Amino acid sequence: MDGGSRHSDSHHTTSAHSRPVEQEDAHPIALKRRRVAEFGGRRGSGAFVLCNLAPLLLLLSALLAPARGQNVTVNTLCNFDFDCNVFGHKCLASIAPYKYISSTQRVCRCPAENYAGGDCNTTTCIGGVTSPCNNHGECRYLDGSCNCDTGWIGTGCTAQCPTAGGLVCSNFGTCVLSGPSSAVCQCQNGRKGPACEIECVGGMNNPCAGHGVCQDDGTCVCDGSYRGQDCSMACPGLMGFADRITCSSHGTCTLSAECECDSNWRGAACNLECPTLDGVACAARGVCNTRGNCTCFTGMRGVSCEKECAGGSQNPCNGHGECLADASCSCQH
């Protein structure tokens, strides 16, 4: 029976060492070893990842770990299936907390936001220990540069962007530095205001109808030949070589895009000249109508009313005939 017992014990011992790895790994105290493909910047170095450490071992590893910031290789990628810690002064959780990459990958990080660099000790973030990234950004742990919060820009996140409704540049512009600690919005076409919060008259697709300049308050200053709040109304006028000649240069265009003509000009575009005598329209003996013709007073004839009928303007043809266009009389019989 002793032999049987020894055989049984031997068989039991052999079976324990020959169990599949999956069964051994299932033991709560067991240490799972997984080889890291790239560890400390060297491929195939033979380092091991310790997974599912018992609380006692975790405490022991933390106590034995080197001081913070020493022998920590940043950006060491650890591939594993469970929550693992890399032992041997590399990526130890008590020294360099992991950054979650995926369900099977994490990467070493420095212990505090104001530390950076390959050993978490040689580089401090912009703004220093007390105010890293001006407290408006996250320190990039590899080089100590700042990844600014939304609405802040600058090397050290010192410039605040203009906002409206909680949106940087109202989502209609780009925030750019205007000084070491100041920022402005470069607005898209058709937007104005410090935070691009004002839409120009005519809208973003056609501000000022393409015939004016949008002002800071969103109103339009129209080009010379256009009127209206959105500069969409063209003033009458003759077309020149490059543009319309407003009111043919013989009048003034009103806010309603109508021409008020000079004294000797008529027509919607002030392009009809009244007949004159010595520079006086209709020789002051008639009225120039909208067609640019003279309507002469009684007893006056001629294109510019320059002819007086026989008998004079008070009694043409002595009241006994008709004054013709040439100012002659056709007498009654």
UniProtKB/TrEMBL annotation:
Q: List the disulfide bonds.
A: 148-157, 222-231
User: What are the entry keywords?
Assistant: Disulfide bond, EGF-like domain, Repeat
Show the stretches that span the lipid bilayer. none
| Keyword set includes Thylakoid | no
Q: Which residues form the EGF-like domain?
A: 121-158, 197-232
Under the heading InterPro entries, the entry gives:
EGF, Teneurin
**UniProt key word Disulfide bond:** yes
Superkingdom of this protein's organism: Eukaryota
Where are the residues of the annotated region Disordered? 1-27
Bias type Basic and acidic residues, positions: 1-12
User: Which Pfam families does the UniProt record give?
Assistant: EGF_Teneurin
Gene3D superfamilies linked: Laminin
Output this protein's name: EGF-like domain-containing protein
